[in-house]
Amino acid sequence: MAVVHRGAAAICGAVVAMVAASCTPTGPDRSAPSPPPSPSFPEPSSSAPQTAEEAALAAYEGMWAVVVDASHDGVTEPPELGDYAQGQAHALMVQALESAAEEGVTYSGDPVLNPEVISLAPEENPTTADIEDCADGSAWIPAENRTDSQIKPRRIEATASYDGLVWRVSEMRIWEPGSCD
User: Fold this and answer.
1) Which of 89, 92, 102, 150 has its CA 20 to 30 A from that of 173?
2) More confident residue, 38 or 43
């Protein structure tokens, strides 16, 4: 899977479409081992990102990498998702994957992400980061379900939180198609 990132650090349209349309893949049993992360996503490094902004973006991108892989394989609750997402954001992604599995929808292709951190708080030693993205999922939805309204990029607003050890996406809102315009 080759997720294309536009912008400096850089899902989206399809999970966006999954969430909005409540569709995603079916497939392997939840207990089956998950495939290794896609080589197109940055592999986790042995050292932590140097800045809060880099770490928050890594959590956001890692969350989407796990969700995209799961959408290709029909996994409804990938265990790795907890490494990158928690709370409302985690629940939203699991709900989208489960809805897709219930409908027997499998995804292929990859979304295009363009996330950026728009604010960090507090300024010194940040523990929250607000992220905005304009996700293009036009290449990541099933062709049979594609409509013109689904292929328009969607605005995504996310909040990543630092618990003293790791950054995870904790909240997320996915706007309607065309909301990036």
Assistant:
1) 102
2) 43
